Amino acid sequence: MMFRILATFLFLAIVAGSIWLGSQQSGSAPATPVERGSTDLGYSAHKATLIETGPDGMPMYTVNAEIIRERPNNNVDFQQVQMSFRDDDGQTWTAHAKHGELGQDTGDVVLTGDVHVDGILPGSTDATDLATEKLSVDSRAEVITTENPVTLTSPGRLLNSLGMEADLKERHLVLESSVHGTFSP
Length: 185
Fold this sequence. Notes:
By secondary structure, this protein is mainly beta. It is built from 1 helix and 9 strands. The protein has a single domain, classed as lipopolysaccharide transport protein A fold (Sandwich), CATH 2.60.450. Helices cover about 15% and strands about 55% of the residues. About 5% of the residues have low confidence.
């Protein structure tokens, strides 16, 4: 019997204490909502793969990166990135870079830092390496561009240029200016 009285008394003390503490907190200043700072990340992933598909459901491009981060401006940053994409002829292109950035809903990927793109250029049967410090890949238009110095290397050929545009759909390559090259038989 004594146990029931003690348990009831303890229960009433807990209820009364809760009511008393709740009334004291309601008199304090209201809580301030937490706002996201400009350095907050939307998401982050380690050793991740990002695949963008086209209207036909087939991959337009695939990005593998050591680190993928969404930024508050809805851009996506990549570190130690490898990107692969296909042109209309089914040729697979592979790009490697230290950094990359994907714009929201654009299909444009900007690669920076020791960028290398490997594939077969339009009108050629030989594998080619494009090397530059900054390169833009428009996966929807299938156009690769740079305004920076670029070096194109393939068996027996070495071309240097300031700026380049490769239209993979039209199978057309334009070296912009200051073009120098060597061709070996």
